[in-house]
């Protein structure tokens, strides 16, 4: 279990920073290309991530 020290602060900071970066990139793509373009990018990336997790478990 994490104590309320630097480890927990780093976990919260990295989660917030990662979400902000993801949201910013998606908003920029939607503004530049449209929502269909973003959907076509997210599906293959999610698929490769899922397949990578399944391979790692074995």
Automatic annotation (TrEMBL):
Name of the protein this chain belongs to: WAT1-related protein
Domain of life per record: Eukaryota
TM regions (residue ranges): 7-30, 36-55
Keywords, comma-separated and alphabetical: Membrane, Transmembrane, Transmembrane helix
């Amino acid at each position: 279990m994490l104590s309320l020290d630097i480890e927990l602060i780093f976990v919260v900071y990295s989660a917030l920073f990662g979400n902000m970066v993801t949201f910013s990139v998606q908003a920029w793509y939607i503004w530049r290309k449209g929502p269909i373009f973003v959907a076509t990018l997210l599906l293959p990336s999610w698929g490769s991530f899922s397949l990578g997790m399944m391979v790692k478990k074995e």
